[in-house]
Specification:
single chain, 161 residues, Ribosomal Protein S8, Chain: A, domain 1, 2 domains, three-stranded antiparallel β-sheet, 6 strands, 44% helix, elongated
Length: 161
Amino acid sequence: MSMRKERPRNRNKSFRPKTDEKKIRDIIQEIDDKLKDSIQPQIVEGLNSFERRLIHRHYDHNPDVETRTYRRAGSFTLYVYPVANIENFAREKARQVLEQGESIDLPPMGSFERYIVHNCLKEIDGVETISFGEGRERHVQIINKKFGRGLKKIVKKIKLF
């Protein structure tokens, strides 16, 4: 039994250079600055898998932001969606529809952004959301429902008898 002096491991030591960490921090800071008041997703291209994973990990526990990676022709593109901003925008437009009684067309959005809007507004009585358009011009229309969802339920019950 040898009595070697054991040294504590330096667990914080990374094999990646510090410039990678600074690059990621700069990218995250830039994304945060752009997403502050925007409903448009931020698109980050040219990252390797490790860098994408670090950015995903940074936003994992933030419910206000969602990250998605899409593959196009062999390259990967990272999208960072401002979920909270999109939901607030949709709720504000739904409030306007309820006050004015007229439908409102939202600007063209991608499929995930439209999903966020539909999901956010499905619980609000008095409004209904429908997607219209083709391709890049596809958008959500928020419609005022005069009687809300309750009337449809009553009509279904009456038809049962």
